[in-house]
Amino acid sequence: MLMQTKKSSLFKKVTRGITIGSVFTGNTLLHSSSILALGLTKLVKPSPKIDETNVNIANNWLTINNWLIDHVLPETQWDIRIDPNLDLQLDGRYIMTCNHQSWVDTTVNQYFGRPRMPLTRFFTKWELIFIPLVGQAFKILGFPMMKRHTKSQIAKNPELKHRDIMEARKSCEQLLSQPFTLLNYVEGTRFTAEKHAKQKSPYKHLLKAKAGGLALAIHILGKKVDSLVDMTIVYPDGVPDYSEFWLGEVPRIVVHLRKIDIPQWILEGNYEEDRQFRAQFYQWLSQIWHEKDALIDEIKTQYQCKTAP
User: Fold this and answer.
1) Distance of CA 11 to CAs 4, 15, 112, 241, Å?
2) Are 211 and 271 in contact (CB under 8 A)?
3) From which residue to which does any coiled coil extend (predicted)?
4) I need a labelling partner for 262 at 20 to 30 A (CA). Which of 22, 94, 110, 277 fits?
């Protein structure tokens, strides 16, 4: 009897995985190829209408993914907490910071944002552009793509650093023609215990914050955004990988959002040229990160750490 139950459970798991994987892959290929096709027409005749249509296609892709989450993954309980001072609108302009633990984070970002905020773009690695269809769709949709150079490469060719900044600046400025949410994973990489130990991070649940990308976004967009939003994602039962999420093996996800006021001195400063400003900016960001670390600790305590319901 026990063996039959295990076989039945395994069959359901495999069937669900195949079904979700097929729908998700088909949905992604259909919408990304449509975005790519429309994007190529801009080479002949640029038009804001094409950009608007591509955003609508991307939003439709997310709507289908979110439908899957709501109807095929009912076991996952969402605990969404929004600061009452934070007024989110679909036609708004937002810069958003978030902690980063798993590839699931991007799905959580989009699941939360689709009915509440404009399409979320995020700083990503330039290498993703070589992923067929998806990478090119990211570029067409205005995701800022960063080429990460080593210190030795920059030392040999200092122009590499300025070129990267100029590309990021151009991507940010292009967002101003439409509503947007620009997400920055401030830690720069996914959290792991190994990275945490290697960094000697001063935080319990976070890696050290990297200020450059956020400072650049605020410098270019800060005076024109409606809010700086800080999102905190917590998986009370352990950080999942992507397959675990889509197989319905993530019991609970907590999403907390709050509004962060941008001081006037930050809007007027120059991160690249002013060493004192860089130090002050990093101190300001570190305080936000200490508050986030305490919040994660509080949420984990509320959920009794990793005890499943």
Assistant:
1) 10, 6, 31, 21
2) yes
3) none
4) 110
Residue 125 CA to residue 143 CA, distance in Å, equals 10
Cβ-count burial of 280 within 10 angstroms (0-12 exposed, 13-18 middle, 19+ buried)? middle
Of 229, 290, 288, nearest to 83 by C-alpha is 229
What single-letter amino acid sits at 156?
A: K
Q: Which residues of 89-107 are buried (b: 16+ CB within 10 A; e: fewer)?
A: eeebbbbbbbbbbbebbbb
Q: Which helix (H) or strand (E) holds 278?
A: helix 275-302
What is the model's pTM? 0.88
Per residue of the chain (309 residues), give pLDDT as tens: 545 555 556 677 777 777 787 888 888 888 889 988 888 887 777 778 888 899 999 999 999 999 989 988 888 999 999 999 999 999 999 999 999 999 999 999 999 999 999 999 987 777 777 888 888 888 888 887 777 666 677 667 777 667 767 777 777 888 888 899 999 999 989 999 999 999 999 999 999 999 988 998 999 898 899 999 999 999 999 999 988 898 888 999 999 999 999 999 999 998 888 899 999 999 999 999 999 999 999 999 999 755 544
Please say whether the beta carbons of 24 and 68 come within 8 A: yes
| b/e burial code for range 152-173 (CB count within 10 A of at least 16 → b) | eeeeeeeeeeeebeeebeebbe
